[in-house]
Design a protein that fits this description.
It holds the Pfam family Radical_SAM. With 413 residues, the chain is of the alpha/beta class. It folds into 2 domains: 218 residues, no CATH class; 79 residues, no CATH class. It contains 15 helices and 10 strands. It has a 6-stranded parallel beta sheet with strand order 3-4-5-6-7-8. A two-stranded antiparallel sheet has the order 1-2. A two-stranded parallel ribbon has the order 9-10.
Amino acid sequence: MAQLDTRQKLEILADAAKYDASCASSGTSKRNSLDGKGIGSTEGMGICHAYAPDGRCISLLKILLTNSCIFDCHYCINRKSSNVRRARFTAEEVVHLTLSFYKRNYIEGLFLSSGIIRSSNYTMEQLVEVARELRETHDFRGYIHLKTIPDADEELVRQAGLYADRVSINVELPTVSGLKRLAPEKDGRRIEGAMADMKGAIDDLKDARKKYRSAPKFAPAGQSTQMIVGADAAKDGDIIMRARTLYDRFRLRRVYYSAFSPIPDASAVLPLQRPPLMREHRLYQSDWLMRFYGFTPSEVISASTDGMLPLDIDPKLAWALKFRENFPVDVNRAPRDMLLRVPGLGTKAVAAILSSRRWRRLRLDDVARLTVSLKKVQPFICCEDWSPRTLTDKSDLTAWVKPKREQLELFPG
């Protein structure tokens, strides 16, 4: 490997990290250095690399320790047989970069992953060393997210949880057959075993902190995972069911979806074209429906066609159009769970409706102030001065409520 300076390494390894989607920094405990002690915080604003659920922009230094790897996963641009420019940071270089970027107000935290070099244990030791050095030597109080390696020793993975706010273990692909075909060196059972061990450690330390205030925090922002979409034959229904299983079994904070991107010198077993990015977006929307809107996986899938979510409308609208017998919903009387199923009404709008109707009967103008598109909501609700009558059963309702495509202007007049 040619000798590279830090700037050249950063250019290579920051670009190589762009394929990892799981870098949101929500859910961790609040820490800061306002008392004059330590460096960094988990709060504040900065250059945006990710969005937290509350809308805050989170700036993270998102890099790989190295893009060299001993594995040869077909879908990975950093695989052993890939003809890409390689680089490698030392643990000390990553620590220096993180602190330097933070002091310049470029970032609020670190997202660190890596290809596998020498062995899983050796690589995991390097990742842990970065986090340990930041926390113990420099008293860094910003956000740290570490990608852990399923094949690494359990004690090394446990140490990662002691230093990092969030840890993640990628399941890579939604089906066992897909993983076996495209990443034969990886073991699905080993991956799930590592996720189970992490869940157990998080639960144990959480219980310990209830009894002993001196007990250390352990991955306070939990664990997450990522699935590649479109590299194998898995349908949206398969992905949705897999995500729900992961949430239930391992109490994950997030499942991230990353649309497969064709890579140079690609293996013949990979598709020639990337899936539509809208497919990734629809999967995130379906994930949101299950996590915050009370939809079951089977309900989300029931709105699909042959296991694939429609790309032209969101899954909540697709469900409402397919099961029109559930509508219209009376905004002045319906329970929260039914209001959440109305297309165009989000959780905040529903909370505002439930609060406001305690004092007066709501009219259509009141609902209009709570939603971006009243046209989308109208066929599915009734209120004090509005009833959709035959609109809900309109034969061309899909075309009527579907958002119209329009060319955006870069410099509107």
